[in-house]
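Key result, reporting period 2: structure in, sequence out.
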């Protein structure tokens, strides 16, 4: 019918059906053009968590076959301490006591938005709570510095994400003659994040609880399937997720807005053992550059960041303060409850005596 309309112009001009059909055909072409335009520009208006373009940055990534890792001048990565390279992994520490090792990038990272995917493995002969101590992923100003914080220096400047496998805080709680509450007890292994400004110390006895931004339990030891850690930093928002169940699905661990990290810091991974030990292996560190549209104001604010900080740090510490006051709060709650009960009993006795006295007067 459309062909008939195009062949007979005189009839086309008089037939209402042809007018409608031509309008539908033109409308379809217009709709198709608009749809193509929308599909073309839609990534520009996408949310941060969707449709972001990502590019693997090989100069900041570590993966098999680990060519030249640790050798002078022939690799972007440098080994420290007891770390060693094998065909299958970079072993940060062997399953031996009092060892620490690390691998650090030689190139500072100047990306505004990035995503790190960590393929790691923690395994050993130790049973539950008889293993340690854990590993850490770093984005810090300092590099290649031995220390007590999972094999890195204390009072670091930047971001640390820790996979802590031993609960030191249990001994601290026992020494203080305190007890965990269901709200405050953590199950280990535990993943947590901390931002340091060069003057904040990691509390080893309390497993970093006073300075943690958030965390989650992660049963990562001696698993037969692969385990992954996901760290994303976009528009001053830090997100950590884990994939440890063998289902190839990310599980939320923490999501903190207002995290300010300067550019030009170094990526690294480290681990430490003490009286207890584990093999701490890094299979790969893959860094992706994320392309996110920013306003000029946001660009200017990023350039002003010189010291790592967290905007809402006071709110994050509020729970810690409430935890410290929990014993006192319980004491005063019980005390005032008892006083309230006594007061009510006295009032009831006074009212009863008045009622009883007035009742007897009515009989005389």
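The corresponding designed sequence is given below.
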């Amino acid at each position: 019918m459309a062909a008939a309309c195009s062949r007979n112009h005189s009839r086309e001009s008089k037939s209402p059906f042809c007018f409608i059909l031509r309008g539908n055909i033109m409308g379809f072409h217009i709709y198709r053009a608009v749809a193509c335009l929308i599909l073309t520009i839609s990534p520009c208006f996408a949310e941060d968590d969707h449709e972001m373009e990502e590019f693997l940055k090989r100069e900041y990534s570590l993966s098999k076959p680990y060519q030249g890792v640790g050798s002078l001048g022939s690799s972007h990565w440098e080994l420290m301490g007891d770390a060693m390279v094998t065909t299958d992994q970079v072993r940060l520490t062997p399953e031996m006591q009092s060892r620490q090792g690390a691998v650090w990038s030689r190139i500072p990272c100047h990306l505004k938005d990035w995503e790190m995917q960590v393929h790691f493995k923690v395994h050993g002969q130790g049973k539950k709570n008889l293993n340690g101590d854990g590993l850490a992923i770093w984005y810090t100003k300092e590099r290649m510095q031995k220390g007590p914080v999972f094999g890195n220096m204390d009072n670091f400047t930047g971001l640390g994400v820790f996979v802590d496998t031993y609960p030191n805080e249990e001994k601290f709680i026992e020494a203080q003659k305190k007890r965990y509450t269901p709200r405050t007890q953590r199950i280990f292994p535990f993943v947590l994040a901390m931002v340091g400004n060069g003057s904040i110390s990691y509390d080893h006895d309390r497993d970093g609880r006073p300075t943690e931004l958030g965390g989650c339990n992660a049963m990562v030891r001696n698993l037969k399937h692969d385990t992954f850690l996901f760290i994303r930093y976009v528009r001053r928002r830090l997100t950590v997720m884990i994939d440890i169940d063998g289902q190839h699905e990310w599980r939320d661990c923490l999501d903190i807005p207002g995290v300010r990290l300067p550019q030009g810091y170094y990526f690294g991974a480290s681990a430490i053992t003490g009286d207890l030990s584990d093999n701490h292996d890094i299979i790969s560190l893959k860094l992706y550059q994320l392309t996110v549209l920013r306003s000029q104001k946001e660009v200017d604010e990023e350039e002003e960041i010189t010291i790592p900080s967290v905007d809402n740090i006071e709110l994050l510490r509020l729970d810690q303060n409430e935890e410290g006051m929990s014993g006192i709060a319980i004491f005063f709650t019980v005390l005032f409850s008892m006083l309230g009960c006594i007061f009510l009993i006295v009032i009831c006795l006074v009212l009863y005596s008045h009622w009883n006295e007035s009742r007897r007067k009515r009989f005389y």
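Residues 325-364 form one domain. The first strand starts at residue 53 and ends at 56. This case is discussed further under Risks and Mitigation.
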